[in-house]
Amino acid sequence: MRCKGPLGLGATDIMQAGHSDASILSVPPEPFALIIGGAIREGTPSAVEAGLRRMGLRPESVADGTGGDTWADGPLFRLRFGSASLLAGQASAAALDLADPLHPSTSLLASSLPREWCAPGHCWAFVPEGGDRSAADPVQMREFFKTMVLLIDLFDASHFFWSPARLWSDAPQFRASIAEMLKSGMPPVLHLVAFRHHDTGEGAAVRTRGLAHFGGQELEGRIPSGWTVAEMVKRLARLALDIIINGPVAEPRRVRGLDAGEWVSLAPRGTEAPPTVLVEFDSDFG
Asked: What DSSP character marks residue 20?
């Protein structure tokens, strides 16, 4: 693909209007992360390997055909940190296409990507070994994201992409959110889940993307009259956090909302892939 940019996109662009998920590319079969950084652009693969070794990630060369070569080209390395094992290499054309910031399927919680973000060697892919199975193990995912913090520091990264949400984040902000997660135990929902603003034909709605990777379900709800998109995202993010920590919504239920008199109705709809929970808000005050 041909790089386009620079792209001046603000934090609210994560909620892209007018794009339903009907036209979005299918979710990739295995999660991966992309990192753009000055140290990557300026270094050769051998220099990158030396940096990985200094960081204590014990890189070892691996042959193609290991699974990570779907999203990574050229020399592949296996990295280890704690109990985590991941494959690393220069991002493949398939990975770059999936992460294209100008495609309507891509969400952004970042400022501007470098003009040559997808030039050869400028972007590296990191694939946790075990694929979707690793999402079922909170310890594995925690170790994977701890490794990403080290890599962001090593590569002086400017941007971070998480494939299950197809979401670009500001790398320093992502790093700070993971550091906070390690202290508080609260996952950084806004950096791991995209919140997509779209029109259902019956009104404006917000739907999550990437939540199913952690909780087995996505959320979707129509925006009540008079609410802003930000108010809706705030509430869905709270519900998403509850699903990540406590597991999927198994049956319909009604719970109290954020404001006095506010109620939230949750209705699992298991006929879709991935399963979706329909969310409706109402109030004691009409």
From this structure: -
Residue 240: closest CA among 262, 271, 256, 217: 217
Query: Side chain identity at 36, as an amino acid letter?
Result: I
Q: What does the pLDDT look like over 176-235, one tens digit per residue?
A: 999 999 888 889 999 999 999 988 888 899 999 999 999 999 999 999 999 999 999 999
Give the integer Cα–Cα distance in Å for 192 and 187: 8
- SS3 category, 276: strand
Helix axes 138-154, 171-184, angle to 10 degrees: 140
Closest CA to 98 of 36, 32, 159: 32
Please give the pLDDT value at position 25: 35
Q: Give phi and psi for 98, each to the nearest 5.
A: -65, -30
Burial class of residue 134, CB neighbours in 10 A (0-12, 13-18, 19+): buried
CA pair distance 74, 92, nearest whole angstrom: 9
Answer whether 54's CB lies under 8 Å from 46's CB. Answer: no
Q: What is the DSSP string of 85-117?
A: EEEEEEEPHHHHHHT-TTSTT-EEESSPPPTTT
Partners of 280 in the β-ladder: 265
> Distance of alpha carbon 91 from its chain centroid, rounded?
16
The amino acid occupying position 280 is E
Tokens standing for residue 121? 């060697």
Contact 129, 35 (CB under 8 A): no
Q: Any residues with CB less than 8 A from the CB of 194 and at least 6 apart, and which?
A: 14, 107, 165, 166, 167, 208, 209, 210
Give the Cα separation of 93 and 31 in Å (integer): 16
Instruction: Give the list of residues 6+ apart from residue 197 with CB closer than 8 angstroms, or none.
Output: 15, 16, 17, 204, 205, 206, 229
